[in-house]
Design a protein that fits this description.
The complex is a heterodimer of chains A (357) and B (593). By secondary structure, chain A is α/β, with parallel strands linked by helices. Helix content of chain A is 27%, strand content 9%. The chains are: A alpha/beta (357), B alpha+beta (593). The interface between A and B is large, with 100 and 108 residues.
């Protein structure tokens, strides 16, 4: 057989890679909103990922509490939690660990647990979620934090919270890397924009087959192609901003920055991408951006319905020159609203064409 | 590895636990003792292993942040919280949104019912009744299903009951995959009205930020009519499937059965009547498109939201909290002058006390909400929401909007002609039992109900738009001192938000979703919570030996309530065997190889 002269394009054939297991822990301080949001993804959908509908995806086995078939009793037949013990014992390799929910601080109290996932057979007590992370993270191919709670702490890490909640990088360390050299992959959002997560997961699966290079992440561990631009840069109401037209009531189609929208300083692609199937969103459809993808969320953005302090200055500036811009545009727009004069009935053609007859 | 073991009490029972329970939302453990000789669950304990502390960290925050924050309580019905919170805020601020704003919220919330019940019924609960599961738990039942023609095959297209079961197999099943798609376009409907799912972006006290246009309503209605057509297939499909179980397994009505103790707090306000004042709450509560009610042993005790409000009590007993007895009482009297109990949510203090789990003492982060009827502290359940909503609406006989009509003993749902199907009427009749199968059946009927109410709301909303009344939001001021309560029906049932404002900030805020009622633990009087109570009465029909036992009947009982947290049941099988067989994974875990 002659040596192949063509380079392999795309992914290695699926049968050359082992089955990749996905161990999903939803038992951080979470609401399961990120699990639920993922079922809305269409680019690709969960069934397309699991059934390998995209070319070159490896075979995967998902252990996901939300829709897992398995539900047998602990220690008995078809027990869901057993997969996590297998992961710990090194019996499934490789696996990707997905964590949903903030990580509480279990060290601040004499006993008990803020959150647990399955039971310790020795003691009969719940195994805390942070203990699972300690057990599984070192063995994982990659660790993925889904949602703003798992990435940065989120709502449950608000000032005054009793649990001392934090994000996964706060818990494991921002420089933490998996045994495969992959940093913690953070997909923030409250909840995640569905396709943002399914796309990131798909990228990691391609990376695992060798088809894609190291996933590009920014200094907050976010995929750069999803979180590189601000809300405002992708918001279709930015034109109103430029013309100095600001909504004074929430049901106005104009820019919402004076009513609490933080879009100009928030990294998120929702207005550009839509919420699902291009529909919905936040400021593009009348919902102020409360910055739910950001590490500073929620405390640095509350009260949500007040104007962000920085918006005062810039909106005053845009109010001044925007009025001039608007005036000039309206003059131009008037002329553009008229058809050229040669479009009419009559016996003479006035388009500039000289008829030969 | 955990073991299935004989109970240490010499009772011959077998201890079994399901923890975490899959195909629900959140973290729930069910711990049981099972009597395999009698084929019954002897004891059941429901435990939730996650505490976040909303009522703790919301204190001192701006009241206008409440709906954004409380939405994050739940990832599948967060919008119900946001809605309930803006209701409570509207009351506290004294603001009444424009009618169109209310129609838009109703359309968003209807879409939430349509989405959530659909995904739960077909992709989470449905798996309990799929061919794969039935083959592994009751092979005899599957054989019978293969031989049983589906009575409504003409409506749904599946010739036998086994064909229906096959279509529900995870991912491979055609209907399973179709339902996933339906869960998506219903969420698109939701996003049209509320911006994004599940945490809305366009909801505010005083109304919504949604731009009401002809396009908005057209985009919604086009999808709604697809759903209406879908439901004309789904209602008969589930009727066939659930009726078959009664036939195939005589006595199956006992699975998940408990006394009829149902609560419904009403949903979907009529803006013609609802002014969000406490003073008029009894009246506008009765005008809701889902009628509030407390039902005891099949009788309507009250449909008055003021009575319902005053009867709520939060008991402790088996949960990890310190009692607030003797702490400051925020509200001694409601705005009408009625005395408010110290154990009412307006007066609750949440004082977490993390500790070891002990099933003889404290074993869950869930408290024990009860409804006091003047004599007893009733452990009401919601049956997952739909059964209580339909039951309550049926008994009151108040709803009459053409598309739905309550008769006093049933609810009639009239669906108009769709692209390929004629006008169709369904009648949900009050069932004989409050059990697993009837909770599931009601879920399907309520999907049709929600679609029917949405048709009405879309017509009313479009009327406003065509008349040029496009305002959807009303200004308001936050008072220094104030009081608010919001009542609605989350997807899974009763939802209340109680808020107290002092010095312009949140002084107290206690949301009570349905799952605390359903998943509650043994209270101070020793009364078990609804899951516990329902599972404890559950007979075992599964054909497996203790070694291969899945506990499908227990899972069906628990999932019929549509739990929204982690739950575990310990069952005792006797014999103290350690089971070590390796199982080939199935469903999502195995399809990739």
């Amino acid at each position: 057989m002659t040596e192949a002269t063509t380079k392999t394009v795309g992914a290695a054939p699926a049968d050359e890679t082992p089955t990749i297991h996905i161990l999903w822990i939803n038992a951080g301080l979470s609401c399961d909103g990120d699990s639920v949001a993922l079922t809305a993804a269409m680019q690709p959908s969960i069934e397309e990922i699991v059934l390998g509908a995209l070319p070159g995806l490896p075979k995967i086995a998902v252990h996901w509490p939300l829709i897992d078939f398995e539900c047998g009793p602990v220690g008995g037949a078809d027990t869901f939690i057993e997969w996590f013990f297998k992961g710990e014992r090194g019996e499934i390799d490789p696996f990707v660990l997905v964590v949903e929910g903030s990580i509480p601080n279990e060290a601040i109290k004499p006993e008990g647990y803020w959150c647990g996932f399955g039971d310790n057979p020795e003691t009969g007590q719940p195994i805390t979620t942070s203990e699972w992370i300690d057990r599984l993270a070192p063995k994982a191919l990659a660790v993925v934090a889904i949602g703003t709670c798992a990435t940065y702490g989120g709502i449950h890490a608000m000032a005054g919270n009793p649990t001392g909640a934090m994000g996964l990088p706060d818990y494991l360390g921002w420089d933490w890397k998996s045994q495969a050299g992959i940093p913690i992959v953070c997909v923030p959002g409250c909840p995640i924009q569905p396709d943002n997560f399914s796309e990131t997961l798909t990228y990691l699966l391609y990376q695992a087959t060798g088809a894609a290079p190291m996933i590009p992440l920014d200094d907050k561990l976010r995929p750069t192609w999803l979180f590189g631009a601000t809300v405002h840069e992708g918001c279709d109401r930015a034109g109103y901003y430029e013309q100095g037209e600001f909504a004074l009531s929430y049901d106005s189609p104009k820019c919402l920055v004076k009513l609490g929208c933080w879009g100009p300083v928030v990294k998120c692609n929702v207005p550009k991408r839509g919420w699902m199937n291009g529909i919905g969103g936040c400021p593009n459809v009348g919902g102020i951006c409360i910055a739910c993808t950001m590490p500073g969320f929620p405390d640095k953005f509350m009260p949500f319905m007040d104007e962000p302090p920085g918006a005062k200055l810039s909106s005053t500036a845009s109010g001044a020159y925007g009025a001039v811009v608007r005036k000039l545009r309206s003059i131009t727009a008037k002329t553009l609203d008229q058809e050229p004069k040669w479009r009419r009935t009559g016996e003479k053609i006035t388009t500039g064409y000289r008829p030969p007859w | 590895m955990a073991r299935t073991k004989a109970a240490g009490d010499g009772s011959g029972l077998v201890e079994m636990a399901w923890d975490p329970i899959t195909r629900i939302v959140g973290s729930l453990g069910i711990h049981t003792k099972i009597d395999f000789k009698q084929k019954r669950v002897a004891e059941c304990y429901s435990t939730s292993s996650v505490f976040r502390g909303y009522s703790v960290f919301m204190r001192g925050k701006d009241p206008r942040d409440a709906h954004f924050i409380t939405s994050r309580i739940c990832g599948i019905c967060g919008d119900n919280h946001a809605t309930c919170s803006v209701y409570a805020q509207n009351m506290a601020y004294g603001v009444k949104p424009p009618h169109l704003g209310e129609w838009i919220i109703n359309l968003g919330e209807s879409a939430e019912y349509m989405f959530d019940h659909n995904i739960f019924q077909e992709n989470l609960v449905g798996v309990d009744y799929c061919e794969k599961m039935v083959k592994e738990t009751n092979p005899g039942v599957l054989e019978l299903a293969e031989r049983t023609e589906a009575p409504h095959a003409a409506e749904h297209g599946y010739r036998t009951i086994a064909d229906i079961m096959r279509s529900l197999n995870p991912l491979e099943g055609e209907f399973y995959r179709e339902a996933l798609q339906v869960s998506r376009y219903t969420r698109e409907m939701f996003c049209l009205m509320e911006g994004r799912h599940v945490h809305p972006s366009t909801l505010y006290p005083g109304g919504v930020g949604t731009i009401a246009s002809v396009q908005l309503f057209t985009d919604y209605l086009s999808r709604l009519m697809r759903y209406v057509e879908f439901m004309k297939r789904v209602v008969p499909l589930h009727d066939d499937l659930f009726d078959f179980f009664y036939e195939a397994l005589p006595g199956y009505e006992e699975v998940g059965r408990r006394r009829v103790l149902l609560g419904c707090w009403g949903a979907l306000n009529d803006p013609e009547y609802c002014d969000f004042t406490y003073a008029n709450m009894s009246d506008w509560g009765r005008r809701m498109f889902v009628t509030p009610g407390v039902i005891v042993d099949g009788k309507l005790v009250t449909n008055d939201l003021t009575d319902i409000n005053l009867g709520i009590r939060i008991l402790l007993g088996s949960s990890y909290y310190e009692d607030w007895q003797g702490q400051e009482q925020f509200v001694t009297h409601d705005p009408l002058g009625n005395p408010v109990d110290p154990r009412h949510p307006w007066n609750q203090h949440t004082i977490p006390a993390p500790q070891k789990r002990n099933f003889d003492d404290k074993y869950s982060w869930v408290m024990s909400p009860r409804w006091f009827d003047g004599k007893d502290h009733l452990a009401l359940d919601t049956g997952g929401g739909p059964i209580a909503r339909l039951w309550s609406t049926a008994l009151s006989g108040l709803v009459d909007i053409g598309y739905v009509k309550a008769t006093g003993h049933s609810v009639v749902i009239n669906l108009p002609r769709t692209m390929t199907k004629p006008e169709t009427s369904f009648e949900w009749k009050i069932p004989k039992w409050s059990n697993a199968l009837e909770r599931n059946r009601a879920r399907t009927y309520f999907q049709a109900y929600a679609a029917a109410v949405a048709l009405h709301c879309a017509e009313k909303g479009l009327e406003e738009v065509r008349a040029g009344r496009t305002q959807t939001w009303e200004k308001f001021e936050v008072p220094d001192e104030g009081l608010g309560v919001g009542f609605t029906e989350a997807v899974r049932g009763v939802l209340s938000h109680h808020m107290v404002i002092r010095d312009g900030k949140i002084a107290n805020y206690h949301p009570y979703p349905p799952t605390p009622w359903n998943a509650s633990t043994r209270d101070t009087f020793g009364t078990p919570g609804p899951y516990e109570d329902a599972v404890q009465n559950t007979p075992i029909f599964e054909e497996n030996t203790p070694e291969n036992f899945k506990g499908i009947d227990i899972m069906r009982a628990v999932r019929s309530f549509d739990p929204c947290l982690p739950c575990g049941v310990h069952m005792y099988v006797g014999g103290g065997k350690t089971v070590k067989s390796m199982h080939v994974p199935t469903g999502l875990s195995g399809l990739g190889g």
